[in-house]
From TrEMBL:
<dbReference type="GO" id="GO:0019323">
    <property type="term" value="P:pentose catabolic process"/>
</dbReference>
<feature type="binding site">
    <location>
        <position position="9"/>
    </location>
    <ligand>
        <name>substrate</name>
    </ligand>
</feature>
<feature type="binding site">
    <location>
        <begin position="172"/>
        <end position="174"/>
    </location>
    <ligand>
        <name>substrate</name>
    </ligand>
</feature>
<feature type="binding site">
    <location>
        <position position="34"/>
    </location>
    <ligand>
        <name>a divalent metal cation</name>
    </ligand>
</feature>
<keyword id="KW-0479">Metal-binding</keyword>
<comment type="similarity">
    <text>Belongs to the ribulose-phosphate 3-epimerase family.</text>
</comment>
<dbReference type="InterPro" id="IPR013785">
    <property type="entry name" value="Aldolase_TIM"/>
</dbReference>
<feature type="binding site">
    <location>
        <position position="174"/>
    </location>
    <ligand>
        <name>substrate</name>
    </ligand>
</feature>
<dbReference type="GO" id="GO:0006098">
    <property type="term" value="P:pentose-phosphate shunt"/>
</dbReference>
<keyword id="KW-0862">Zinc</keyword>
<feature type="binding site">
    <location>
        <position position="67"/>
    </location>
    <ligand>
        <name>substrate</name>
    </ligand>
</feature>
<keyword id="KW-0413">Isomerase</keyword>
<dbReference type="GO" id="GO:0046872">
    <property type="term" value="F:metal ion binding"/>
</dbReference>
<dbReference type="InterPro" id="IPR026019">
    <property type="entry name" value="Ribul_P_3_epim"/>
</dbReference>
<feature type="binding site">
    <location>
        <begin position="143"/>
        <end position="146"/>
    </location>
    <ligand>
        <name>substrate</name>
    </ligand>
</feature>
<keyword id="KW-0119">Carbohydrate metabolism</keyword>
<feature type="binding site">
    <location>
        <position position="67"/>
    </location>
    <ligand>
        <name>a divalent metal cation</name>
    </ligand>
</feature>
Length: 216
């Protein structure tokens, strides 16, 4: 599988100093930014959308991995791509025909990911897998940072990795120095991290500790 990477999640960051946050993350070795978009409908929380993606796009060359926690991903996919998103991940629970949604996003010329919450069975993904570049296995219920890691994600990662050796796998929720190793062992490539970076003063040290824990 791919080279593992830690993706900071812009959810618990300082939105009053977004430029500074991005600079600190870049300095800490970040290669990809994970952007958490919530609509107050698919999840009970709201965050931000295209203007922030567009603003970030003007300040960094890092790929922008946009996690759409919204009810109607296709209604905003084109606008997100125009704003500068490089990868759009939508939730299988949000749509009727996930394979068709994946294909439509892919046709916009970006990478496409499909996400599933801890309660959602893997079987729901089957038909979409030929149309996606990545699966995002949620290890918390989408909606809030700072929740407790649900190990059901590890089982899903193992099953997916065994069946699809080349599929890009991402995990999101409750990832810290104690959960990142088991997630890597289960076959995960990309590790989204909120609290375990942003609740620390020194992002560089926090990311270095996470990188160490992946390697162990
Ligand atoms: C949850 C978001 C995550 C979250 C991760 O809905 O998708 O990206 O910010 O935060 P932590 O690492 O605190 O669980
Ligand atoms: Zn996320």
């Amino acid at each position: 599988s791919a080279t593992p990477a830690v993706l900071p999640s812009l959810l618990l960051c300082d939105f009053g100093d977004l430029k500074g946050e991005v600079a600190r993350l870049a300095d800490a070795g970040t290669k990809v930014l994970h952007l958490d978009v919530m609509d107050g409908h698919f999840v009970p929380n709201m965050t931000y959308a295209m203007p922030i993606v567009e603003g970030l796009r003007r300040h960094t060359d890092m790929p922008l991995d946009v996690h759409l926690m919204i009810s109607d991903p296709l209604a905003y996919a084109k606008a997100m791509v125009d704003a500068g998103a490089d990868m759009l991940t939508f939730h299988v629970e949000a749509v009727k025909d996930a394979a068709a949604v994946a294909q439509e996003i892919s046709d916009l010329g970006v990478n496409v990911g499909i996400a599933l919450n801890p309660e959602t069975p893997l079987a729901l993904l089957r038909e979409s897998l030929p149309h996606v570049d990545m699966v995002l296995v949620m290890s918390v219920e989408a909606g809030f940072g700072g929740q407790k890691f649900n190990p059901v994600a590890l089982e899903k990662l193992q099953v997916l990795r065994k069946e699809f050796p080349d599929l890009l796998l991402q995990i999101d929720g409750g990832i810290d120095t104690s959960t990142i190793g088991p997630a890597r062992e289960a076959g995960c490539d990309l590790f989204v991290v909120g609290s375990a970076i942003f609740k620390k003063d020194d992002y560089k040290a926090a990311i270095a500790e996470l990188d160490d824990a992946i390697a162990k």
